[in-house]
Amino acid sequence: MSDQANHSGPALLRFAVISQVIARIHGGEQLAEAVRAVAWIDHVQFDGTSQRVSERSIRRWLAAYRAEGISGLEPRKQSSAPRPKSFLQASSTF
Hints:
Blueprint: H1 9-26, H2 31-39, E1 43-44, E2 50-51, H3 55-68, H4 85-91
Antiparallel strand pairs: 1-2
């Protein structure tokens, strides 16, 4: 079984995006230029829809990949901890 079979669709999409950045860097582009170019590309997801990814997200994904490999590209679970009462009160004033 391949290593890719153990990772989620979002992690593999993120890997595909940063792979394009890495390929551009190896082709001689500077990091900023490569990230900017890849951010303008419509990336096709597994369900057939396309999306663009912000430069900030690409940079975060690249840093996560460098630190943890493809496992670092897995989506993080949201905390289900209750929010502080002060936050709930402040948000109700909007």
